[in-house]
Amino acid sequence: MFKNYLKIAWRNLIKNKIFSIANIVGLTCAFAVAILLSMTALFELSFDQFHENKDSAYQIYLTSQTPRGAETSTSNPVPLASALKEEVSGIKQITRSLSEDALVSYQDKDLDLDAEFVDAEFFSIFSFPVIAGNTNNPLPSKNSVAITEETATKMFGNTNVVGDVLQVKVGSDVYPFTISAVLENTPTNSSIDFDIVIPFENHPEFEANKDVWNSQFFPIYLQLEEGMTTEQFEVNSREFANLHYRGSIESDKRDGASPDENGQFKQFHLLPITDMHFVSFKEGKAETARTFPYLILGVAIVIIFIVCANFINMNIALSEKRLKEIGMRKTLGAVKKQLFFQFWMESVVVFLVSIGLGLLLSNLLIDPFKTLFVTKATFAEVTKPAIILLFAASIFIITLIAGGYPALIMSKLGTLRALKGKLDFGKNRLRNGLIVLQFAIAIILISGTLVLHGQIEFLRNKDLGYNKEQVVSIPLNGRKDSYAVIELLRDELTQNPDILSVSGSDSNLGLGKDGSITSSAMGFDYKGRGLITNALTVDYDYAKTLDIELLEGRMFDKKYSTDSLSLVINESMAKQFGEDDPLSIRINMDDAVTYSVVGVIKDYYFQDVKKEVQPLTLFLNRNWDLYYAYVKISPKNAAQSFDAIKTAWEKIEPQAEFLGSFLDENVDRTFKREKTLATIITSGSILGIILSCLGLFAISILVVAQRTKEIGVRKVVGASVSSVALLLTKDFLKLVGLAFLVATPISWYFLNEWLQNYASHVSLSPLFFVVAGLTATLIAFITVGSRTVKAASANPVKSLRDE
């Protein structure tokens, strides 16, 4: 019996070639894309899930009630970790952790590595397995380091390196460290990524700040004892916060801050490490939004839905052509169960063929897909037993609906009615509903694509307050002192007429090739009020190099020997001071040092372009290192100037990799998530429209076939080709119009919510939705019209004779 079902199923597929090919092509493309998108989404959702202690490990953050409202910080002072462990109950283990670049040398080889400065408990909280060396304690002493397998291979050519000595540049000094362990490479789905791990007490800021509570620059992670909840920890830590942050609390009270619902001005909170990849801090709270992976997964589901709707529609439409076959089968004794299994088997055959082809296609496309979407996901994400089981269950349900629904309808028919070949599917309500839903989804995707690209272009073309097209930023990742490197660059490039200016700072603009983003903030009292500012250490010619507009006063100048005690502030900082004459401001940062404001610059986007410009203070302090050089070039010979900078760098720092990039490239890198999302939505829109039109085209063929006699009669009585084509097309266009009415408010709501994540954004113009609707309508008109015009142009005599 089963063999007979397969044989008849295959014959019917061959008999209806157009519909079989349309179904298989559509399903194959949809399955291939859905597999790749699901792979990406599941990879994103797997971040930090590999840690054995994931259910009891947390990152700590502090919420402060200030005159400006609730503010959060994940940066902490050096003595906090040990004080928390001693004074607050419920903590099993705690570790400090700070990510920085480190120049590591062995013999004549230098590598700029991602370093993680940690406490020994780091490896007890997090699961980073040891493959060689000390497995119980990878950092047994202050002078030991642990490196990854990849780092060992790059540096030594093998992993048998335990006991070897590396030279590591820490701050401005170089120290020897013994390799005590080799670690597995950090997983691609880890929020903490490193090449080398160094004991925290070796950090250059450790000694100076080990007893200082107002210098905060690194995150802290902890593991709670069994039975301890996050709520209990928060209650336990309140008295601790009130004691150790007493001065800051009194300052905030004085300036008008209000306590939280628990009467606290400082409250520690815990963020699960599995949420770190998705967290954002708003109004004093941590918000974890897995929007990106869920949206990718949603696009995959939508594509599968569209192609399955096509499949169901075509199966229902084709079933009417098989009524006489059903009637004959029933006459010969076929029962309902047999008819049902016959139709279902045909659906299963199509799906199995499409799944096989989809797997093959996705395998062929995986490398270009990973490059296009900048993902490290692999097929391992979708080959887990639970995922395969879910996929199999979904296929079972879809084939059951696609093949079972028409079978149930027709199996209920009487034999005589079936033999007459007449069947009413409820005036095609299901078919029309699925078409409306398909095109509504397509319109939502198209409008999303337009708004996403509009927002990216808005941010890309936004005036950032500095010159991003003519300035090259270079990470100072070599052996020499940062100020000396900048002076040497000036000397090397001074004779080049296309090099206009050279400067530096301790923070990059945008995201450079080194992948690091740094920021520094500080607070101080001014005339009885507590103020907070972002702090930036710069070199001479900073504003000149970046074309930042000077509004009042002057920038730092070599002519003034006292500029190490001078400040330059931006407009936002000047407003925070609230003085009529900003150049009269004098600030006592501590009891011994007084700083004077000598200049005010125009606000510029020194942080993420997606955020509002914050108060900023520029310092000129040779005791603080610079981490980036800036070189302004002439627009005439940009390529030659870039090569000249690279040549100069290789002469000055021959062993350090040149990672220079234009600032506009850096800014573009900060849109990586938006660009990936736009690419996914755009691809989904294109595929969704193609699949919808594929189904629409097949349905239009059936509708035209059903109305062949009507077309012939209308032509005989004088109807024109255009009037007949319009008659056949308008019903489908009405469905697209209804889809537009359904999709527009839904699309507007979600896009408006998404745009609220940006301090400045593109206006949500009705034009976005009108263009999306017109695009869908035009494509549907071309799809259906191509078939209806052909039918309307046919010889009416032939149509009537065929009937």
From TrEMBL:
Localization of this protein: Cell membrane
Segments forming domain MacB-like periplasmic core: 30-234, 479-637
Entry keyword set: Cell membrane, Membrane, Transmembrane, Transmembrane helix
Domain ABC3 transporter permease C-terminal: 299-413, 685-796
UniProt entry tagged with the keyword Calcium: no
Protein name stated in the entry: FtsX-like permease family protein
Classification lineage: Bacteria, Pseudomonadati, Bacteroidota, Flavobacteriia, Flavobacteriales
UniProt cross-references to Pfam families, sorted A to Z: FtsX (PF02687), MacB_PCD (PF12704)
UniProt membrane topology term: Multi-pass membrane protein
UniProt xrefs under InterPro entries: ABC3_permease_C (IPR003838), MacB_PCD (IPR025857), Macrolide_Exporter_MacB (IPR050250)
Organism of this sequence: Flagellimonas chongwuensis
GO MF annotations in UniProt: transmembrane transporter activity
A cellular-component GO term for this protein: plasma membrane
Alphabetical list of PANTHER family matching this protein: ABC-TYPE MACROLIDE FAMILY EXPORT SYSTEM PERMEASE COMPONENT 2, MEMBRANE COMPONENT OF TRANSPORTER-RELATED
Transmembrane segments: 21-43, 292-318, 339-366, 386-409, 430-452, 677-705, 732-751, 763-784
